[in-house]
Structures are given as C-alpha cells and as structure tokens.
Amino acid sequence: MPHATASWLVDNTALTFEQIAEFCGLHILEVQAIADDTAATKLTGRDPLRAGELTMEEIERGQNDPEYRLQLQKEPDEVRRTKGPRYTPVSKRQDKPDGIAWIIRNHPEVSDGQISKLIGTTRTTIAAIRDRTHWNIANIQPKDPVTLGLCSQRELDSVVAKAAKAAGIEAQQDTRLAGDREALIEELRREREAQARDADAALAAEQAAMNGEAPANDRNFDDIFKS
User: Fold this and answer.
1) How many Å apart are CA 223 and CA 115, to the nearest integer?
2) Spatial separation of the C-alpha atoms in residues 118 and 155, rounded to whole Å
3) For 112, phi and psi rounded to 5 degrees?
4) Of 8, 30, 23, the residue nearest 148 (C-alpha)
5) Residue 189 CB coordination number (10 Å)
6) Whole-angstrom distance, CA of residue 223 vs CA of residue 207
7) Phi/psi at 147 (5° precision)
8) CA nearest 8: which of 51, 40, 38?
9) How many of the other CB atoms lie within 10 Å of CB of 55?
10) For the chain, how big is the Rg over CA atoms in Å?
11) What CA–CA distance (Å, rounded) separates 163 from 174?
12) Which of 179, 181, 165, 150 is nearest to 107 (CA)?
C-alpha cells in the first residue's frame, strides 16, 4: 500500500517528497499530489512504524539529512488474495487498453502473461491489441499504466526487469522528467521551507501577543512624531 504509506509520511514527518517517493516506490509528482490533496481519492494513512517497516530513529535520520535514503526494516506483509484476475476499480477499467498498448509499444519483451497479471486483463484482449484487431483499436492511445493508476511504478519496474533478464537485454530506465527533475525537487523544497518559516513567524507573533508584546513590525507613533 505505497500510496497510503506515503500519505502517512507526508502528514506525520518532515521528510522530503523525494525521500518519501523513493521509499514508497512512487513518482515524486504522486507524492506531491497526495500532499496537495489532489489525488483521486482521500487516502487513509498507513503507519509504517506499526507495520515494522521503519523505526523512529530511521525517520529522524532522514529528517536531519535530506540526502539520506530511508532503509526498509522489513518487507511489507504480502497481501494474499484468492485466485482470479487482478481487481481494478470500475472507474479505471476503460483505461486498461491504453495501458496495455503502452507496455506493448515501450516494452515488447514483456510477455502477454506478465501483462495479464500486471494489468488484470485477459490474454485475448492483449492479443487483440497487439494484432490491432481490438474492436476499439481506433480510440486506443498508449498511456503509462502507472499514470493511469492500473499498477505501481515498483510493480511495473519489477515486471520489466524480469522480462529483460529473461530476454537477455538491459532493462530500459524511466527517464520521464529527467531534465527538470532536480529543478522540481528544489522548487518543492523551497516551498516547504517557506511554509515552515511562515509557520514559525505566525507562532512567534502569537506568543508575543500572549505576552503582551507588540509585533516587531509595529511602530510607536509617539516616537515617530517626536521632534
């Protein structure tokens, strides 16, 4: 449950989006969407401390060093399910052909069986898209299945790596947004630092008001008009 874990880390820690994204196997923009509450659904956070996947010491080490990469203490408990196709929400099922077409175009080494398990579809549908005999082939547009929400980046990378190893080729690396990745991370970091400064200033003003002190930017008008 990487999205739920990322939601908890965003709400309960001062880790950077990049640290959370790498630990949860997500794209940094997915973490930003969770933080901005622009994700498709409001997620219920999943505590990685209770699950034994992180310790408070590990989180504090990451908060003190933005370049530090969190170390997983134990693998997440395997989610067991009954036999059958992978479940996909009804709202996303119409996106499956687009995701299948993207994998066929960008990773031809991935077998129909692997695509079937990853996306949760039938081999007949995959073969129809591959042969361009699908009934809706004119409207199918290849789109990244991770962006469509059909699978996670970690799952996709794992399937591609296995297929590449079996085919004896080097797995392709995801270079999306590679050019402006560092700029995006720096921009997000500046925004978080600015928010932290604003919060500190607001707290200082509130404490000053409670102590009966005038805010630092207030002026004594008697002093101004003294000759």
Assistant:
1) 76
2) 7
3) -60, -35
4) 30
5) 14
6) 25
7) -60, -35
8) 51
9) 14
10) 24
11) 15
12) 165
Rounded distance between C-alpha atoms, residue 167 and residue 30, angstroms: 31
Distance spanning both ends of the chain, measured CA to CA: 69
Alpha-carbon distance of 117 to 209, in angstroms, equals 61
What type of residue sits at position 215? P
Tokens 């080490």 correspond to 61
Instruction: Dump pLDDT digits (tens) for 137-148.
Output: 999 999 988 888
CB 21 within 8 A of CB 153: no
* 151-172 confidence digits (pLDDT tens): 888 888 889 999 888 888 765 5
Distance (Å, whole) CA 23 – CA 3:
11
> Which single residue is written with the structure tokens 């880390």?
9
User: Residue 165: helix, strand or coil by DSSP?
Assistant: helix
* Global model pTM greater than 0.70: no
Cβ density class 169-187: b for 16+ within 10 Å, e for less: eeeeeeeeeeeeeeebbee
Tokens of 185: 């991370």
